[in-house]
Structures are given as structure tokens and as C-alpha cells.
Design goal:
The protein has about 475 residues and is α/β, with parallel strands linked by helices. It has 19 helices and 14 strands. The chain folds into three domains: about 130 residues, 3-Layer(aba) Sandwich (Rossmann fold); about 160 residues, Rossmann fold; about 140 residues, Helicase, Ruva Protein, domain 3. The strands form four sheets. It has a five-stranded parallel beta sheet, with helices on both faces. Strands 7-8-11-6-12 form a five-stranded parallel beta sheet.
Length: about 475
């Protein structure tokens, strides 16, 4: 046996030395790439784990002195990611349930059949490898800094993180599907950051935010004199993203007449500026996202089937918040900390009852709705704690704006407050969606640019705070 513990090592703990060595020999034979270590007591096992971590520990339940359950508790305290399989010659349903509730991954009864042992060890090692990869991926993602990390520990989020890592390792196009507000753009930015192109700035385009008549020029650029107002040549987003990634957000809403030109650019890996006669080679990875049912849009003729298959080389589906409800408390805490920093207020906390109320809410608007709800809670709570009563009150205001707190407030004052609440929520949504681009926000909202700037100033909203790091545009 190799007595050097590594993160792939397997630790066998049993006071019956012959049994322990026999199990170790079987494991070493079936899993030759994993060093196997034998220890005869809980104390020796804990010493071994303190030297270097293991991927898997198989331990007897009944041992002199400290038993297997006590060892399990201390081992998981020492190494929370450790996968543990319990062994006992006194197996019972009660013992199995106790072991699993205490944090064991599996439970086997002596004498152990070789095939049963191999299946249990194989599944346990798979679980350990997944946990190790998730920790590594989470560490990489967290390098994005505050507000740039995917937050969550639910099975749905763990699956999403694994898919992100898988697609980031290659250069194929990725279609990101998910409901509005579920975090598709953050997923795209994470894929880009983890890819070989991650050192370059990702370029993004919201296909619904650019007027149809200038979308082609926005994508491919134009030459001087290509159309009225084209007083100088302009580089398109494809060329701006050369060597990087281009996110086409809300691709399902791209106008039909632009789709063939996009398809050609993807197939030929070159673009031709509007009014130009020569094509320019580009090296761009396409990330596309949508909340639309593209199958239905293809059936209705609103989306080209050949473009769909060109974009849909790899697919990542972002789960809705109701599919990862256990992540709501973690997200709420993260958003509250971020909001308090943005507002430059003291730290605030949700009380346990308030957190329960948040977790029980359906959140049809997904993560974006939760973020905006937390922002409102932070703004309207005066003390350091946000209570369940405040959460219920805000919830009632959201469902019926103004009705929960009007009381005997004068009509004109109530009307003004409701309009201000609506305006603030609308502008926050707008700034978040367009990443603080005031020009595009004015165009999409139908407001004059000067009027929008006055609203931003009156509401105390800084558009720059919504912009991705390193990006800026003219005000």
C-alpha cells in the first residue's frame, strides 16, 4: 500500500487489521490510481487526515474507544468535502439511517461482496471528484469579484456550474436558454471568463435594444457613405470582438432579414461591412441567449432553422429561481451586502423569519426580481434588521402598488409616491438591462436622452454603477 495521502487517496479504518487489509487490497486492485491507506483506530485516522486530505474514507462503525459515528463527525469537521462510506457487521436500518443523516455517503454491511464494494467505491469517488471540481470552479468564478459570481449551492446550480466548465473548455457556439431574469448574461460572461479568450473583453449586443434599421451596421460595421449619415467608416461588433467572444442577447428577437447575414458571418467566419465590397476575416466565439421558444419561432417562420442549428452547437439551460429555491437565502444575503455597499449604508441583515418569507415566495421574475426586491428592502428599512413584517409589506406593495401603505395618506401625495416608486423600479430595470448605456436606454424607453438624465439625477441613480468593469460609453 502507498502510505502517501493525496486528495485522491482512500482511507480504510477498522480495528480488525486482517479485514481492513483485505478491503484495502481489493480496492487497490480495482482502483490502482488511488493510493490506499489503512488505519486501525479513529485517532490514527484523524491524524492521517490532518497530514493531507483524502477523497474517500471507509470506516467501521464499532471500534474500541471512539466509534465510527464520532469519527465521521470529526472527519467532516476537519475535511467537509470528504466522502465517507460506513462499514459494520451489525448492520440495521436504524444504523444506516443514522449514518446517512450524520453525513455519510453510503453504508455497507460486513462481509462485503467485492462487486458491491466496487460499486460503492466507484460512486463515492465520482461524488468526491464532482465536489472537488465544483470547489475548483467556484474558486475560479469567484475571481470575478463582487457581483460577478454565480451564487448557489442547489443541485440545479451545481449542474449548471458543471455545464459551464464543460462548454468553456472549447470554442463552439453556445445557446443559453432560460426565463427572463434568470441570469443568462451572467452565465455567458462566466463561460467567456473561463475560456481561453477570457483575457479579452467580451462584447455584447442586446438584439432588442438596437433599432432594426441600424442593427446590420451595429453587427458588421459600415464604410463611409454607405447610407445617409454615414460620414465615416465604423467598425462593427464582430470586428470589435475579434479574438474574443460576442454575446447576442435575446437572439430570438433578431429581425428575420438580418438572420441570413448573421448565418453567413458564422459559416464563413468573415464579415462584410454595409456598403463594402470586401469581406474581413474574424475569429469570434458566439454566445447567444434567449427566453423565447425557438422551435415555435422556427415553425412560424420568425427564426431560421439553419441559423438555429449553427448557434445551437452546445446548449446551456439556466434554471429558474423556483427550480433552485434553496439558493434564495444565499442570493438574498449576497444582494443585500452588495446593495448596502452601493448605497454606502451600514450593514443590514434579514431576520430568520424574513428569510423564510423570501424563500417561500415564488419569484416569477427570477433572480432579477429578487435583486430588485432586496434593493427596495434595503432602501425602505431604517434599522440594521429587515423583518418578516417589512418583507410582507413590500410584497404587498409589489402585488398592488401603493395599496399596502396608503392608509389615510392624501390622494395627491399617495399618487406622487406611487409614481416615484414605479419610476425608480422602471429605471433600475432599464439600467440593469442595458448595462448603464444611457443612449440605448433612452432609445428603448422612448424618452428623450436629456429627460432620462434628469430622472437619473432626481432619483440619485448612477448609470456608471451598472456598467461592466472596464466598459464605458459617452454620456
Amino acid at each position: 500500500m502507498n502510505d502517501h495521502l493525496t486528495s485522491d487517496a482512500i482511507l480504510v479504518v477498522d480495528d480488525e487489521s486482517h479485514f481492513a487489509k483485505g478491503v484495502a487490497r481489493l480496492i487497490q486492485k480495482g482502483f490502482p490510481n488511488h493510493p490506499v491507506i489503512v488505519r486501525s483506530s479513529a485517532a490514527e485516522a484523524l491524524e492521517a487526515l490532518q497530514e493531507r486530505p483524502c477523497a474517500l474514507m471507509l470506516t467501521d462503525v464499532r471500534m474500541p474507544g471512539q466509534d465510527g459515528f464520532s469519527l465521521l463527525e470529526q472527519a467532516l469537521t476537519l475535511e467537509p468535502a470528504l466522502t465517507v462510506v460506513m462499514l459494520t457487521g451489525f448492520g440495521s436500518v436504524e444504523s444506516a439511517v443514522k449514518a446517512l443523516k450524520s453525513g455519510a455517503f453510503d453504508f455497507l454491511t460486513k462481509p462485503v461482496d467485492q462487486d458491491v464494494l466496487y460499486r460503492a467505491v466507484s460512486r463515492a469517488l465520482d461524488r468526491a471528484a464532482l465536489a472537488r471540481e465544483n470547489r475548483r470552479l467556484r474558486a475560479v468564478i469567484d475571481q470575478g469579484g463582487p457581483g460577478q459570481a454565480l451564487i448557489g449551492e442547489s443541485p440545479a446550480m451545481r449542474q449548471l456550474l458543471g455545464e459551464i466548465e464543460a462548454v468553456a473548455a472549447n470554442d463552439y457556439s453556445v445557446l443559453i436558454l432560460g426565463e427572463s431574469g434568470s441570469g443568462k448574461e451572467l452565465v455567458a460572461r462566466t463561460i467567456h471568463r473561463l475560456s481561453r479568450r477570457g483575457q479579452r473583453t467580451m462584447v455584447s449586443l442586446n438584439c432588442t435594444a438596437v433599432p432594426e434599421q441600424i442593427l446590420e451596421s451595429e453587427l458588421f460595421g459600415h464604410v463611409k457613405g454607405a447610407f445617409t449619415g454615414a460620414v465615416k467608416a465604423r467598425q462593427g461588433l464582430f470586428l470589435a470582438a475579434d479574438g474574443s467572444s460576442l454575446l447576442l442577447d435575446e437572439i430570438g428577437d433578431m429581425p428575420v432579414h438580418i438572420q441570413p447575414k448573421l448565418l453567413r458571418a458564422l459559416q464563413e467566419r468573415e464579415v462584410r461591412p454595409v456598403g463594402g465590397s470586401e469581406s474581413i476575416p474574424v475569429d469570434v466565439r458566439i454566445l447567444a441567449s434567449t427566453n423565447q421558444n425557438l422551435d415555435a419561432r422556427m415553425t412560424s417562420g420568425e427564426f431560421r432553422e439553419d441559423l438555429y442549428y449553427r448557434l445551437n452547437v452546445l446548449t446551456v439551460r439556466v434554471p429558474s429561481l423556483r427550480e433552485r429555491a434553496r439558493d434564495v437565502p444565499l442570493l438574498a444575503m449576497h444582494f443585500l451586502e452588495r446593495t448596502c455597499r452601493e448605497l454606502d449604508t451600514g450593514a443590514k441583515e434579514f431576520t430568520p423569519d424574513a428569510m423564510d418569507a423570501l424563500a417561500a415566495r415564488p419569484w416569477p421574475g427570477n433572480v432579477r426580481e429578487l435583486l430588485n426586491f432586496v434593493r427596495r428592502a434595503a432602501v425602505f428599512s431604517s434599522g440594521p434588521y429587515i423583518t418578516e413584517a417589512q418583507v410582507r409589506l413590500l410584497d404587498a406593495q409589489v402585488k398592488a402598488p401603493g395599496s399596502a401603505s396608503m392608509g389615510f395618506e392624501p390622494y395627491l401625495e399617495a399618487k406622487e409616491r406611487v409614481i416615484d416608486d414605479f419610476t425608480r423600479t422602471y429605471i433600475l430595470h432599464l439600467m440593469e438591462r442595458l448595462k448603464g448605456n444611457v443612449t440605448q436606454a433612452a432609445r428603448l424607453s422612448g424618452l428623450e436622452r436629456v429627460s432620462l438624465q434628469k430622472i437619473l439625477k432626481r432619483m440619485g441613480i448612477d448609470a456608471a454603477k451598472f456598467r461592466p468593469a472596464g466598459e464605458s460609453w459617452e454620456e
